[in-house]
Amino acid sequence: MFNNTRVFPARLYGRKSGEKASRPNANNATAKDYLQGRVEVLLIRQLSQDPNEWECLVNPGRRIGVGERLFFGDKDDLQAMVIARGDFGVRHIQFLPVPDFFGVIERLGHVPLPPYIDRPDQVIDRERYQTVYARERGSVAAPTAGLHFTPEVLEQIRSRGIETAEITLHVGLGTFQPVRVEKVEDHQLHRESYNISAQAAAQINEALVSDRRVVAVGTTTVRTLEHVAAQSDDGGVCAASGEADIFIYPGHTFRVVGAMLTNFHLPQSSLLMLVCALGGKARVMSAYQHAVEQKYRFYSYGDCMFVEINDQSDEEVGPI
Length: 320
What we know:
Distance between the termini: 27 Å
């Protein structure tokens, strides 16, 4: 199972109006720069199309309050207003109407490379920071386990009689947001939009009925399948669109996924907790120890591992 979401240039650089900023001393030579300084906006999730409202992260967050107007492009091609404020830099903004919003985004936006890739984005990143099967626009980060596949690898898989199918989950805050609570059960994931077609649902259910293993490529695919299965009466998968917010950690009963491919993740992250839930904490931690000792590469362009489902019911959750 593959997640065919496509990363779009969701990072915007612009300026603020300064209308809602606290006024510096009038004699301050940098007053105008402070009030109408540069801002960075990372579009996370479209909340509505009409009006065009988005959940986003802003920087500098403390200086951008509700009512602040934002301008992007040399000719103010895009204009927006902050309409709500959330925690940890999250804002809701509303864009003024333009004839082709995503066309303007493609022209003005930047590829939201992860912070550990310490360089500005380049034109080539628009294709390189994608899976080869990326189709559905909507992600702010690539489903990185899929970066290991090439057209040749996919052809080899199919030539061996292995069936493939695609679903969509647009990667947003729910994927990379850190766990900030002491009790795992108190952590709440942000919602991420998903879509499962009738064809994909039929393929998955046929595999389950035939007792064939469903292998998910990446944590986003796992979460989508398990979220939809948790909503059904029989644990199957139906064609559906919606928003997934399932948080999978050790103790979770997997209804669909029997194995997964995934990269190596940060400690104390929801992603690592999901991997431990599937493979068993002891086995996964042992694999991570090996990866550290052998200097495996972590994160987006890093190494990958294959994890099979494991009965970890006798394990304690503990720190991860």
